[in-house]
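Why do we care about 3D structure at all? Because function follows from shape, and shape follows, mostly, from sequence. That is the central idea of this module. The next example makes it concrete: a single protein chain, its amino acid sequence, and then its structure expressed as C-alpha cells.
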Amino acid sequence: MNTFHPDRAAAFAADRSHAHWHDTALWFVREKRDRGAASVPEWERLRDAAAGIKAQALSNLAAYLEEFERNATANGIRVHWARDGEEHNRIVHEILAARGVRLVVKSKSMLTEECGLNPYLEARGLEVVDTDLGERIVQLAKEPPSHIVMPAIHRRKESIGELFHEKLGTPAGASDPKLLTEAARQDLRRKFLGAQAGLTGVNFALADTGGIVVVTNEGNADMGTSLPPVHVASMGVEKVIPRAADLGVFLRLLARSATGQPVSTYTSHFHGPMRGGELHVVVVDNGRSEILAREPFRKSLACIRCGACLNTCPVYRRSGGYSYSYLIPGPIGAVLGALRDPERHASLPFASSLCGSCTDVCPVQVDLHHQLLALRADVAARGILPWGKRMGMRLAGLVLRHPSLYRLAGGLARRALRGAPGLVRIGPAATWARQRQLPGAPSESFREIWRRGGA
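And the structure:
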C-alpha cells in the first residue's frame, strides 16, 4: 500500500507552529462560509436544487455535451474533443503553434494541472505564465498548488516576500501584502501586454446557449482573454449544465462555499470569440466516463471545485496539501485520486476521520464521507491494504460485532487508564473545557443514567 499520506502528514505536523497556523487560516475561511450560508434563508433549498441539476446533467451527459457543441459552434466557438490529458495537451499545443504563439497567460485551471499542460508547453519552447496571484506564487516557487482555490495557502507572507525578492526584485525583508501584490501586478501586466494567447478553465458550460462561464476574484481571466487574440478554454465533460437559467443557483452557492463572499468579483460569460479573435474550447474526458459508470461514485463528478471540503476537513487542515499523493488534495481529491489510480493513491481513502463535515458543507451534496468509506472497502478488496491494517480492522470488527467482547475491551481500557492518574482530568481537552467554562464529564456513564431513569 502507498504510505505517501501518513508519512508526509507526519512531516507536516512535526512543525507544530506552522501546522497550527495552517489549521487556523483554513478554519477562518470555513467560519466565513458558515456566515455566508446563514445569510441565505433558502440555502438548503439551493443545495437541493444544485444537486438535482447536476444529477440531471450527469444522467444525460452525452446529450447535453452534444447540445453544447451545436450551440457553441453556431456562436463561432471551435470545439475540440480530447479522450485524455495527452490528447488535450497535443490539441492545445497545435492551436498555439499554428498561430506562432510564444507567450501564453493562463488563468487558474485544475484541469490543466491534471493534464500537466504547463510542462508540456514549456518543453516545446512556449512560456506559460500563471496569472492568478496564488498560482503565480507557486509557479515562481516551482511548487504545485496546495489548495484548489487558495493555491499558496501553505505559505506565509514572509516566505512570499523572500520569494518575490529573489524572483521579482522586491526589497529584502518586505512582507507587506499590498507591496507584494503590487509587485506581482506590475510583473504580470507586462506579460498580459506581450502574450499572444490566453488559457482559462471553465467553471460552467451552458448547453442551451453554447456559452462558457469563468469565475475569478482578480480579473486575470478577463485580462488574459481580452488582450491576446486567441482564447483557449479547457473544460472537463462534467462542467456542462442544462440551462443558463440554472447558473444562478450555482453562483449563489459557489463563492459563499469557497471564501464566504456573497458573490465572486468577476463572473465572465463567453458566448463567442471577440471581434477578430478566436475562441477554442477543448472538452476533456480523462477518466471521467469511467467514474460516471460507477454508480456509488458518480456524484463526485458534480463537484464545482469550491474547496469547502478542504477548509473543513480536520485531516487536510492539519496535514497540508502536499501530504496528498493526488494533485487535488482534501476529501474530494482523496476520492478522485483513489478512483483514478487505486494502487498509487491507496492511502488517500484513509486520510479522513469520516466525520461527515465535508458532506455537510458541499454545495452540491456530494456524499464524500460515504464514498471514502466505500473506497476503503475497495482498497481492501483489491488486496493492497497492509497486513497490519487488515488485521487491526478485522479485530475491531470482531469486537464491535459481539457485545461481550466490546464490554471486555472497554473494561480493559478503563483499567489501563487507571494506571495513568489525572490523564483525563489534566489533559488538553480538560484545559480547553475549563477555558470555555464548559461542564466537566458526568460522574455516571450514560448507560448508568439511562438504567437508573428507566428503573
